[in-house]
Structures are given as structure tokens and as C-alpha cells.
Automatic annotation (TrEMBL):
It comes from Blautia hansenii (Ruminococcus hansenii). InterPro entries: Glyas_Bleomycin-R_OHBP_Dase, Glyoxalase-like_dom, VOC_core. It comes from the Bacteria. Residues 2-119 form the VOC domain. This is Glyoxalase. Pfam families: Glyoxalase_2.
């Protein structure tokens, strides 16, 4: 068995596509209108479609999982994040763990938790 994709629910699929392209360089592989597959296996799905599938309300900022990315030049990444998305909500601003890894944690446009850390 092989994990193929991770899906996140979004309100505006085009804004989310732009967000993940701008910050992480992810490109669109397939666009099925309301269901978009990006490079690296990330899937964006319109919340209306997801709500119909599961029959439940979406809980934003549930803090039950996160998307994790690694970036060598994390200071430049944080500058880009602050420049392009000045209203982004942080969980942790750029910090250094006791073991030396730098990381920043924030929510995407729809409350999905993202961590960006330097490689270990």
C-alpha cells in the first residue's frame, strides 16, 4: 500500500491554489473543478463538495494535523510569507527549538495548520 495524497478543504479553491503556488511552488497537476491535485500530492477540495461527502460541518483550526514543509532558507521564506500574506495567522512565529531546528507555524487561508522547518 502507498499513501498517494493528502487532502485539505478550502473555501476558495483558486485563492488556495495561488497561496500554495506562491509560497511553496506547488503546481496544478489536475483540476476537476472543485477538486484540484497539486504537485507533492496535495489535494485541494472545495468545502461544499466535502460537506456533501461527509454530511458534517467543517471545523476550521481543529489543530488535529498539519502540513509539514522543509526550507533551508527559512528567513527568506518568512519574509515572503509576511510580504505576500501580511494578515496570515501565526501559531508560532519563527523560532529555534532546543535541538537547533528553526520553524514557523501558521494557518493557511482556510485554517489548515502548516509548519515550515529547516531540514534536520
Amino acid at each position: 500500500m502507498k499513501l498517494k495524497n493528502v487532502l485539505v478543504v478550502v473555501k476558495d479553491i483558486e485563492k488556495s491554489r495561488e497561496f500554495y503556488h506562491d509560497l511553496f511552488g506547488l503546481d496544478t497537476i489536475l483540476d476537476h473543478g472543485g477538486n484540484m491535485i497539486l504537485t507533492e500530492g496535495l489535494v485541494l477540495q472545495d468545502e461544499k463538495i466535502w460537506r456533501d461527502f461527509v454530511g458534517k460541518e467543517i471545523v476550521q483550526k481543529s489543530n488535529s494535523c498539519e502540513l509539514y514543509f522543509e526550507e533551508r532558507d527559512i528567513e527568506a521564506f518568512v519574509e515572503k510569507l509576511e510580504e505576500r500574506y501580511p494578515d496570515i495567522e501565526y501559531v508560532n512565529r519563527l523560532m529555534t527549538h532546543s535541538w537547533g531546528q528553526k520553524m514557523v507555524r501558521f494557518y493557511d487561508l482556510d485554517g489548515n495548520l502548516i509548519e515550515v522547518g529547516t531540514p534536520m
